Amino acid sequence: MTALAIPVVRRAVPFAAVICLLVVLTAILAPWIAPYDPNAIDPLNAYAPFSAAHPLGTDDLGRDLLSRLIHGSRTSLAGPLIVVVAAGTIGATLAITAAWFGGWFDALMSRALDVLFAFPGLVLAITVAALFGSGFITPVVALSVAFVPVIARVMRAAALRERNLPYIEALRVQGFGAWRICLRHLVPNLAPLLMVQAAIGFGYAMIDLASISFLGLGLQPPAADWGLMIANGQPSILAGFPQQSVTAAVAVVITVVAFTAVAERLATRFGGDVR
Amino acid sequence: MLDVRDLRKEYRGAIAVDGVSFAVPAGGSLAVVGESGSGKTTCARIVTGLEKATSGTVTLHGSVQMVFQDPYQSLDRRQTVRGCLAEVLAHHGRDRSRLGELLDLVGLDRRLGDALPRQLSGGQRQRVAIARALAAEPQLLVLDEAVAALDVSIQAQILNLLVDARAATGVAYLFITHDLSVVRHVCTDVVVMSRGRVVESGPVERVLHEPEHGYTRRLVASVPRPGWVPRRAVNRD
Amino acid sequence: MTLLQFDRLTVAVSGRPVLRRVTLDVAAGEAVGLVGESGSGKSMTVRSVMRLLPAGATVGGTVRFDGADVGALDAAGLRRMRSRDVAMVFQDPRAVVNPVRTVGDFLTEVLRDQGTGRSEATRRAAAALSEVGVGDAMRRLQQRPYELSGGLLQRVVIAAALLTGPRLILADEPTTALDTTTQEEVVAILAEQRRLRGTTLMFITHDLELAAAVCDRIAVMYAGEIVEILPAARLHSDARHPYTRALLGSRPGAVAPGERLRTVPGVPQSALTAPPGCVFADRCPHAEARCRDVRPVFTGSAACHLLEVL
């Protein structure tokens, strides 16, 4: 039972897809569509209210918030994208290898992934970032590792099911090698499920990375990043100017909800309970 | 051409196949009949190399292919009919031009070449599966309940096709089935299995008309036919 | 006396036709076999008796059970009919029996719900098991479904169906998943119990010979319509509809070994894909122009334009 069981939510899915597309386009076209340089400081114009010149106002240093939000979409999307691509590739490879060979290899890998799975991804990423230094790369790599078992477990079950279907056995009787059967038949048939997994993981990764940035272990100022903007806007809230934190938080929430809604729709379409 | 000697298969202590021997001559057709759990499918899977026997020997002069029961899962759902057959032809170094002949052989409209499995009926899919199996011109075709999942009228089409294909190509059949009327129609010899063992074997005509073993007699008697009255056996639990 | 009556029953699911003007009277105590291939609508026909139709189904015509319109029953009436008057047996017994409860729980549940005492319910459950040929009934009551073979479990389901003393049993391919020797046993028990109790039976199968052995009359369905109804004893001599004959001729046992089977070209149609005239017109070897354009009226025993000629 997902939120999609509610008709209103189901009807909102095309709308969510449009939002996803807009967010992605914004990230790609950021330098061309942002009205200002996101890092241009204008102390005389700090905490400017909403206006035609600055639709979302400015922050404590007089930087245009809309421009920072637009540029922030790049790292805010790139991080989770790298996480799901890396975790998806590694997870699917491990899963298919385990399902294909079975036996001790499968047993060993499943246990190893269970151990990793027991470790909360966010805690792992925070620990690693604290130990090896903050920035963009470290939390992304740590989170990628943490996401591998999440994806691998679902993919292994699906690969196991697929591997025992008669069409795979027919190919084996034909004399095709394991490598070829996996690459030409197993992987393409599992791809839709992997895409769905990645899309769902994307939302989670985005929240996790924003949290890490918020804690100061991710990207460092003056980078424009949504998680960082929420954190940096905190003192301004007390000063009576909540725009920075609120707009960045709204951007995170809208993007995560939109991506997850589309992912769940794809999941119901391509079958199976994916969580 | 196929000689199976003293086959034995154990799964974690349970014996699935116990001392089974049979042979298929070149161009012959042997049925292995039995009920679920009799070990007939395990034998088929060992002959095609999908499983390894615990002991015993399988001697095969030539190549073997297999047709499976479920036409809905025995084709790659992303592959067109043409793609499926072309891949197999290329793998065995056969000329791609044989594709059309294969479709003709199994009675499939050549225009269906671009169809995906989901656009085909169960009978059509089974024709594709048979074409795929015959593409490499094997000497032996193992048919594992290959008509069991089909509607009666479609089953008849496929059975005729199998009779024709054997006449046209000289391929031998190892027909795994629980349906005695199918055996009578397609095969010349039969092996009756029960609980992992062969209980009776011989020419189809003899075994099905004058069964010697009690189990075979019961099997033959249980097939619905004109004038048949189902009877309750004395406690068989 | 007619116990069950289908009167021009028409069912569509999401606008797609599934059944078309199914008309059939089943007398009390009679056994009627519904025979057809996939998509013929035989399951949907018996399901409509219990109002077990898929969501979005629209129903035209009526189904009457004991004179009462099933479609007009209120919730309480429907529940009473389902629990007391009509029982269903499905193809896969494992899908019907709760896998984690004992056989005894499964058998006594309805009786207990109807107010029978525990020991009385258990006694009756054990007796019902014995009647369907399950030995050592008290031990079986303690067992769970996975400990029983498919054939044994299907007999448990039949025992459960008989327990409440229903007047009608709807059996939907009850032996298709079973081995032939087990099938013989299960249909023998079903036939025997039915005769003993005078229960009415609707038996769905794709096997004409099996239906003929179990039933008094046979209704052959194709593409959502009943195309022929005939007495089971005269199945081979009286079958006149080309489709019934095709079914009889395409069984491997119908011809001498080595002879070609008489096949029907094409694939079984559903009510959605069938031609506008006679539903069998595009596969029928005898079809004429009027067969394709004009829907034949069911007269006497079959719906076919060519009954006089064939």
From TrEMBL, chain A:
TM region positions: 12-34, 77-101, 113-130, 136-155, 193-219, 246-267
Membership in a protein family: Belongs to the binding-protein-dependent transport system permease family.
Gene Ontology BP annotations: transmembrane transport
Organism whose genome encodes this protein: Actinoplanes xinjiangensis
Membrane topology, from the record: Multi-pass membrane protein
ABC transmembrane type-1 domain location: 73-263
The entry's keywords: Cell membrane, Membrane, Transmembrane, Transmembrane helix, Transport
Chief localisation class: membrane
Lineage: Bacteria, Bacillati, Actinomycetota, Actinomycetes, Micromonosporales
Protein name per the record: Peptide/nickel transport system permease protein
Subcellular localization: Cell membrane
InterPro entries reported for this sequence: BP-dependent_transpt_permease, MetI-like, MetI-like_sf, OppC_N
Tree of life domain: Bacteria
Gene3D superfamilies: MetI-like
Alphabetized Pfam families for the sequence: BPD_transp_1 (PF00528), OppC_N (PF12911)
Automatic annotation (TrEMBL), chain B:
Gene3D superfamilies, alphabetized: P-loop containing nucleotide triphosphate hydrolases
One Gene Ontology term from the biological process aspect of the record: transmembrane transport
SUPFAM superfamilies: P-loop containing nucleoside triphosphate hydrolases
Entries under InterPro entries matching the protein: AAA+_ATPase, ABC_transp_ATP-bind, ABC_transporter-like_ATP-bd, ABC_transporter-like_CS, P-loop_NTPase
Top-level taxonomic group: Bacteria
Keyword check for Chloroplast: no
Protein name according to UniProt: Peptide/nickel transport system ATP-binding protein
Organism expressing this protein natively: Actinoplanes xinjiangensis
UniProtKB/TrEMBL annotation, chain C:
Biological process per Gene Ontology, one example term: peptide transport
SMART domains: AAA (SM00382)
Protein's cellular compartments: Cell membrane
Keyword set, alphabetical order: ATP-binding, Cell inner membrane, Cell membrane, Membrane, Nucleotide-binding, Translocase, Transport
Membrane topology recorded in Swiss-Prot or TrEMBL: Peripheral membrane protein
Family: Belongs to the ABC transporter superfamily.
Protein name stated in the entry: Oligopeptide/dipeptide ABC transporter ATP-binding protein
Domain of life: Bacteria
NCBIfam families: oligo_HPY
Primary location: membrane
Single annotated GO MF: ATP hydrolysis activity
